[in-house]
Amino acid sequence: MSHIQEIHITPIAIIDPPLLNAAGLHAPYALRTVVEIVTDDRISGISEIPGNSDIDAALEEAKALLIGRDPYNLNVIRQILTDHFGTESAAARGDAPWDQRKLVHIFSAVEVACLDIIGKITGRPVVDLLGGKMRDRVPFSAYLFYKYEGAGGPLEFGTDPDATGWAAARQAAALDPESIVGQARAMCKEFGFQSIKLKGGVFEPRIEVDSMLALHKAFGPNVPLRVDPNAIWEVETAIQYGRELKGILEYLEDPVRGQENMAKVRKELGIPLATNMCTTSFGDIPRSIELGSEDIILSDHHFWGGLRASMTLSGICDTFGRGLSMHSNSHLGISLAAMVHLGAALPDVPYALDTHYPWQSDEVIVGGRIQFEEGSVKVPTGPGLGVELDREALKKLHQNYIACGLKKRDDEIEMQKKVPDWKFKAVRW
Predict the structure, then answer these.
(1) Would you give per-residue pLDDT tens digits along the chain (429 residues)?
(2) What is d(CA 176, CA 290) in angstroms, rounded to the nearest whole number?
């Protein structure tokens, strides 16, 4: 019987272009943390979560609780971590577009690494540990951003003049509808995406609605479109502009803040509403059902406490008539592999999943970057996650972390490089 003997926590920094969102601007590096759990019989399991020095410190604290534990015994591990760190309120998520809770990140990191170990012990892919594969390929959506010119990383707002194709488009400015359409064409050509999402909440709504109308005109009625203002619109704004978008959207994501406001907009518009901001934990679901605040929950195994919790969420969504898809953050191949295993196990995937992966150029897995075919990723067939840690790449990306000096994400500070007096507002228009 295997027992956990070592836990290695490695913060890394990956190149990220200057992408705009409701909370400000992406820094030149996005932070991730790679967790490796090694058993006493030298079986290694890996996971990847959003980087944050406070969560890294909590993971270090958790080591003493987990050494000697059986990686199969995830129920006990969850209880031990909950007893130590306590439960978290929905308010701990914060107002920013990304989730800032501690415990869900810790458990997701530990659980995915343990499932990777279990898969290697049994010789089965993680999808089989989640109940089995429902599909061989998992579809993803193009994820567009307004952005300043710049490649990110050491170039920051500078560009590589030798870049071509998507590598060139990824560093080009996109600040209006025309350039958003160009970005979409380049991304869809490179990755074959069949649906398109725009990260909104950046400019006043007229510009963003015009961008969606331009995408609809450029790609036609058979390419599903979605837009995410990150809850920064007033209810009246969402209703006004939602009526314009009603005929062209697959769904409207988080136009307003809070379940009550989402329910008001949903009732007025009759457009499917999706969320990863107003219903973000199991404790939020009863009120969501009572109010009718959304049609689709965008799960994220990093934020819901792991892959098995996400399967539980799938059952709840099915019971109460909710659709389920997936949220994304800047990530590498370990997270993408985990998302693909989960996406393959879900009973139904009516909406292509989100991914930031095209915006990243680094990688931390052996063999380099995962390939997309017609916008989909083939489910790994190897044991566990089916991906292995590239230790030289890990060292390099850890050095990036040390050199860049970032300890947690703060898009407001980065935005002030361009607009000195800019401040994040929970509701702006």
Answers:
(1) 899 999 999 999 999 999 999 999 999 999 999 999 999 999 999 999 999 999 999 999 999 999 999 999 999 999 999 999 888 777 767 777 766 788 899 999 999 999 999 999 999 999 999 999 999 999 999 999 999 999 999 999 999 999 999 999 999 999 999 999 999 999 999 999 999 999 999 999 999 999 999 999 999 999 999 999 999 999 999 999 999 999 999 999 999 999 999 999 999 999 999 999 999 999 999 999 999 999 999 999 999 999 999 999 999 999 999 999 999 999 999 999 999 999 999 999 999 999 999 999 999 999 999 999 999 999 999 999 999 999 999 999 999 999 999 999 999 999 999 999 999 999 999
(2) 39
Dihedral-angle region of residue 192 (phi above 0 means left; psi in -120 to 50 means alpha; beta otherwise): left
Distance CA 138, CA 326 (A): 11
Q: Is 63 a catalytic residue?
A: no
Q: Is 327 a catalytic residue?
A: yes
- In 351-421, DSSP assigns E strands to 376-378
Using CA of residue 400, residue 100, residue 183, residue 219, what is the dihedral sign? positive
From 32, 41, 49, select the one nearest 110 (Cα to Cα).
49
Q: What angle do CA 302, 118, 47 make, to 5 degrees?
A: 30
Q: And the tokens for 425?
A: 């507002």
Which amino acid is it at 187? M
Indicate which residue of 197, 199, 264, 356 is catalytic. Answer: 199
Q: Give which of 245, 202, 207 is closest to 225, Cα–Cα.
A: 245
Number of neighbours of residue 332 by Cβ within 10 angstroms: 25
Nearest-angstrom CA–CA distance, 207 and 245: 13
Q: Spot the catalytic one: 102, 120, 197, 327.
A: 327
Identify the CA nearest to 399 among candidates 365, 368, 362: 362
Residue 223 makes CB contacts below 8 A (sequence gap 6+) with 194, 195, 196, 215
Question: How many other CB atoms are there within 10 angstroms of residue 422's CB atom?
Answer: 16
